[in-house]
Amino acid sequence: MKLTEKDKKLLYLLCILIIVAIFGFFIIKPQIDKKSKLEDTLSEAEGKKNSMEVMIATAPSSETIIEESTESYNKLVEDFYPLMNSNQMESVITEMVLDSHLTSLELDVSSRPEPSEMEAYFASVKGQQAQPTEEEKADSQEQSDNPSSESGEGGSTVTASAVYTFKVSVTATGAEADMKGLIDKICADCPAIRITGYELNTKTGISASNEVKSVTSLKLDMEVYMAPKQAE
Fold it and tell me: Rounded to whole angstroms, what are the CA distances from 139 to 42, 108, 122, 127, 172?
């Protein structure tokens, strides 16, 4: 079979197209794929770089926030006793009684402290801040009408999970003036102690020398508040 000049030209063109296709598939296409992968890797690296730059830029402010939060927390709990066990609490109360020139007859401290839920006095600054706003009252009313809705956070009850309470009962004897002085001292100088009840009893008896003597005793029921302290 004899090829014409036109057939020869077509064959040459076909060979050139085949060579170009082979060159493109085995050389150019892998380079394009490689370039695309490199671009994706570069974009991912730039994203990580930007995230790290943001973290570096915000690191000082985060440290400042932590320091301010720690300082604010310690200021809030500065009036509370640090966390202690029942033996340590007994020592604190006994020392307080002895400093008031009284003799401790009985001392009962709960075996372990319990988490406390505290409610701010309604007329205090914290109590006023904790009072629900008109909008919160409306939300509360809406939630009461629709029990399936999520509950809000309004109200004056402040849950203090970091505050723990020891129940303490102490009976002491001595001069009545010293007993009243102990009560005054606790009310004035011990914000972490709340007197929940007291009894002042006077008993009269006859001594071995047949003298009539009166013995006055004071029983105090108290709650002692503690909170963990954070190192600054």
Answer: 50, 45, 21, 20, 51
